[in-house]
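For the sake of transparency, this paper describes our internal protein records without simplification. Such a record has a labelled line for the sequence and another for the backbone structure tokens. Nothing more is needed to write down the fold, since each code stands for a local backbone conformation. For reference, a complete record is included directly beneath this paragraph.
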Amino acid sequence: MRIPTLLILFIFVPFLAFLLLGINILLAPNKPDESKLSPYECGFSVIQGQTRSVFHIHFYLVSMLFLIFDLEILLLFPLAVSLYQVNVFGFSVAILFFFVLTIGFVLEIGSGAIKFIDSKKIE
């Protein structure tokens, strides 16, 4: 009787994960000091009345745009590899995909969710 490959993976991967976690727990150095045990691990003392710093949402928006377009490029690879084998239907589905993404991007810019501003005005 032949054991299916997926069954081996479902047994081997959890075993390997627990084995590596166990080795890490046993062999990793554990030397906590005062700064590591404090709420702020960076070592800075707490400023009374302020628990967080100012963070501009612009960086978050840029990262979300990068993620969306990165996934778009990832979904473009299978089409680019098999472009000679797909027929007109496959090509039209890819064009429709890019059209929907373009409409979403234009709507985000039009609604003001993404504001392209000068970096000197952020400060």
About this structure: Residues 57-121 form one domain. The two ends are 69 Å apart (CA to CA).
